[in-house]
Structure prediction request, 334 residues.
Amino acid sequence: MSTSTFAALRSIGAYAPKKVLSNKDLEAMVDTSDEWIVKRTGISERRIAADNEYTSDMGAKACEIAITRAGIMKSEIDLVICATVTPDYFNMPSTACIISKKIGISNVQAFDISAACSGFVYLLSIAKAFIESGMKKNILIVGAEKFSSIVDYTDRGTCILFGDGAGAAVVSATSNKAEAIVDINASADGTYADFLVTPGPGSVHPATHKMIEEKLNFVQMKGNETFKLAVKTLTQDVTEILKKNNLKASDIPHFVPHQANYRIIKAVGDALGMSKEQVVLTIQKYGNTSAASIPMALNDIYESGRLKKGDMMLLDTFGGGLTWASALLPFAGK
Ligand code: ACO
Prediction:
């Protein structure tokens, strides 16, 4: 389909809670070591939200920054979408509705999506479709997670990995093709649904004492199986999106992978032939923040002055579902 309206990523913003949970802290909680965690994951510390700080609070802070940097009025935003697997409330209202209220946006469509760590790139694909169809003009997308609310801090296989945070962006309509999101490949395979799952509460395991006693409210992960599939799928996915768009790794100044495990990032980066300078890393300080991971990483290079207007970015991500996605886009902010 040909179109004269394109979608452009106008801004980025992020928020990381203050409290730091270090590997040393975890050593006192489970049978693990700083050395094991750094060697196997690349993580040194992660941020943890305060007890009274919720997913929507972090999301709202990231959104305020993204809106200011986009240089638009809140009244110009016509859609708010939040990606999260740790919503304020598990059923309703959506976290997008709560964020909208907290930042003073009302009477516009707002909803959540659930795609785990792939959430932010999924949001980009939804925003692109809404804009190119002419339905919306300025879309606020936000990935926000209070992952600590579903982590079992006695399970060393998962508690070392995850952190809390939020990242947001404004995606706007443009007629300038040079600013446009180039391509997005988003996919899923429910065959592997049991690789990463929070079993309850839900229609399978409604909230009961038994559900809590069996710790079904916590995230469960088949780590090693997920790891192997992530490396294989992501390598294939990013290779394909570059090839399809006649681009080489050397055309991409910023490769921004989901921050799940340094060894996954390195394996995919090496397969593409990316240099150290091209690969964006925040895993050492934030761990895996799920849907917030990619926008938090983008915000990091924006705030450090590395991300400039027009720079091409390659995003890639993999998460529960299983879901995965990659995106090619220039930064169209200031
Ligand atoms: N400290 C010390 N030892 C540990 C720890 C720990 N924290 N965790 C596991 N081990 C032990 C295991 O018990 C095992 O011991 P054994 O050999 O005696 O049985 C050994 O270390 C190796 O365990 P593996 O699970 O095979 O370790 P692996 O190298 O796979 O690393 C990890 C585990 C870090 C979880 C890795 O598998 C991983 O990162 N997986 C992918 C995660 C991911 O990408 N998820 C998708 C996104 S998340 C989302 O969507 C929400």
